[in-house]
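User: I'm new to structure prediction. If I give you an amino acid sequence, what do you actually give back? Let's try with this one:
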Amino acid sequence: MADNTTQANFPLYEARALVRDLMTPDPVIYWSDFLFHVVLGWAAFATALHTPWFSIWQFLAYWVAVFAFYRAAIFIHELAHLERGTFKLFRLVWNLTCGIPFMIPSFTYDGVHYDHHKPGIYGTSKDGEYLPFATQHPLGLVGYVLLSLILPLLLVVRFLLLTPVSYLIPPLRKIVWERASSLTINPAYIRQTGAVRNDHYWQMQELAAFLFAAIITGSIVLGKLPWQVLLLWYAVAVAIFILNSLRTLVAHAYRHEGDRSLTLAEQYLDSVNVPGNFLTALWAPVGLRYHATHHLFMSLPYHNLGKAQRRLARELGKNDLIMQTSRSGLWHALKQIWQEAATAAVNKKNTQDE
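Assistant: Good question. You get back a string of structure tokens that encode the predicted 3D arrangement of the chain. For your 354 residues, that looks like this:
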């Protein structure tokens, strides 16, 4: 972890000056990018559904749907950062065409993710998006990825069953909000009552997700829709969550333990950039391959992150701290955190045996 000398050597003010002109999101880019991929996703989904099962064409359509929907879904991250009260129509359209159909309405990330960036919360037990994976047994990494296999089912249970039941049993509402209304990786996370920024009418999103799940389920039971719709939806959702879990594992170094507050520079140094190439954007879409840069400037719109990182590398690249966060690819980043976790597990075992 960074010491006082490291903090003094980190060129924070210079970095801010370099990206000051890149802070304004471009609605045209947001709309065109999202609409293209969500339409492509549904078109590919329909193609896969009506193509002979296990054919090469269904296989191709399936993976087009996965990557298109994955990119569309990751816009939930942008929604969590956009200035309060802005992009209202975009938020609505995103929820109706992507968030609600995949049981991830935007309120499940709103406020929760914003807290993840706060210096007093990042990396502590109050951070729902942080676990010290690099200091724990590497099997924890495997377990986290495997959770993706049942995550779509858990989300359906949350909105199809827990939503109506919690209204019938009022004390359950508090538990559902605290424990089952947030997209997080920390199982001990408890969502606070006021953990919202934009989605103050989150109950409407919750109701819409319930109605969507109920209508689809009822239509399948009544024979109005083929059961293959649900099977394909689940297969697409699982692939999306697996991709996102792998991306999440390389988003940070995950070395921080305890509840000591981290500075903004320390957040950057505990995060990871994987600039890569155009293929990198398949598994780390919407600017998330520049995750360290994002933690340095959380309000920077995704379409300017690459430009910002290139400026930092060009102007401040001689400072080792700026380039310290870079990894060459997904495998390199996963290998590094696995090796660190394995080393930590051996050290802990040796300590216990002494």
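You can read the tokens as a compact description of the fold. Here is one thing that stands out. DSSP finds 18 helices and no strands in the chain.
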